[in-house]
């Protein structure tokens, strides 16, 4: 842990899901995943000014990592690898960290399509939010998601994040200024129930609701 970036470096694990800092040896795997997931990821991410293939080469990863290390040193971000059973499967960034009276940051994430639907992203985000709002000494984490991005909104729902509203024309993505739902959570909200426990509780409640449905009311 450093004075300029409390909570870093971050190494967390829950079941088969773990998060850790990115490292140079991730270059080939990161490039393979990102290039293979262009159709899955490109519609939701800001453009890079070059082709997707070029922007996600091993060399591009190493250049990106150098920039990320500078932001870590400045105390403004946590760039994290999301792993499933020890293998890189996605990424999660706590970025735009502002200390003092603001005490806030945003979280953004991506996951390989082949690993989607396993609860990996929700688990990783829950662990990181818990860490950021305690050991990391932040007060508030924001997550901003396009309304059309069903899987990402589902992650926020699994964690019970508070939806604060719709940010009109919030970010320039895929050729236009796109609206985003704004979600947030504060340190006070996890004081009595950590996010990882809330996620498990909400999953149990959803399972119980599904089990109690009258089968005669199930749509065919």
TrEMBL record:
GO molecular function: protein-N-terminal-alanine acetyltransferase activity
Superkingdom as given in the UniProt entry: Bacteria
Domain N-acetyltransferase: 17-188
GO annotations of cellular component type: cytoplasm
Alphabetized Gene3D superfamilies for the sequence: 3.40.630.30
Keywords: Acyltransferase, Transferase
Coiled coil: none
Pfam families: Acetyltransf_3
Protein family membership: Belongs to the acetyltransferase family. RimJ subfamily.
Name of the protein in its database record: Ribosomal-protein-alanine N-acetyltransferase
């Amino acid at each position: 842990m450093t004075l300029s970036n409390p909570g870093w470096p971050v190494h967390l694990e829950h079941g088969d899901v773990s998060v850790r800092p990115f490292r140079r040896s991730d270059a080939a795997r990161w490039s393979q995943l990102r290039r293979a997931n262009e159709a899955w990821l490109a519609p939701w991410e800001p453009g890079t000014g070059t082709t997707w293939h070029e922007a996600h080469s091993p060399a591009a990863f190493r250049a990106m990592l150098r920039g990320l290390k500078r932001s870590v040193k400045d105390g403004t971000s946590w760039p994290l690898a999301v792993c499933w059973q020890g293998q890189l499967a996605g990424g999660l960034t706590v970025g735009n960290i502002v200390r003092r009276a603001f005490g806030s940051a945003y979280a953004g994430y991506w996951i390989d399509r082949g690993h989607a639907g396993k609860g990996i992203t929700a688990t990783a985000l829950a662990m990181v939010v818990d860490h950021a709002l305690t050991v990391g000494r932040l007060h508030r984490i924001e997550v901003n998601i396009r309304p059309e991005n069903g899987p990402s909104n589902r992650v926020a729902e699994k964690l019970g994040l508070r939806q604060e509203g719709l940010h009109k024309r919030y970010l320039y993505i895929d050729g236009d200024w796109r609206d985003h739902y704004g979600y947030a959570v504060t340190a006070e909200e996890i004081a009595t129930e950590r996010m990882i426990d809330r996620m498990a509780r909400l999953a149990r409640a959803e399972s119980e609701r599904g089990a109690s449905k009258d089968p005669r009311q199930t749509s065919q």
